[in-house]
Amino acid sequence: MFLAVLVSVLALVALVGIGLFVFGLRRRLIQRSGGTFDCSLRWNVPEEPESAGPPTGKGWVYGVARYSGDRIMWFRVFSYAPRPRRVLERSAIEVIGRRTPEGEEELALLSDAVVLGCLHRGVRCELAMSEDALTGFLAWLEAAPPGQRVNVA
Predict the structure, then answer these.
(1) pTM beyond 0.90
(2) Of 3, 35, 63, 103, which is the most exposed, with the fewest CB atoms less than 10 Å away?
């Protein structure tokens, strides 16, 4: 009986270790070509009335974003999927605002995060990233090819 429990516990520890290794390996593969930054995403955000108070921390998903030409590919950190969960095209991103995390969001996001409100093909979303990553993101948006419409608030 004791041996069976010990073997089960060791097998569970090994599976957890393998799972963590795969998460780390996947992140390394995503980052190998460079141009990546930590970026939390909240997709399809409802319009919040001014009287609603501070936003909740619900809906935020931690991820890694990677620049790829005129697109940003966003990957969930805690996923085994090899493909990005979201692809944001530069020409379809409209920045509508910028703010600091409030209320419960401060617990859901990284400590130095800045929240950028955007529209992507008519869908309201929010990206949360560090100030340095935000500077790079806005520079990437403004560096659009001539003639491409870019709206940066």
Answers:
(1) no
(2) 3
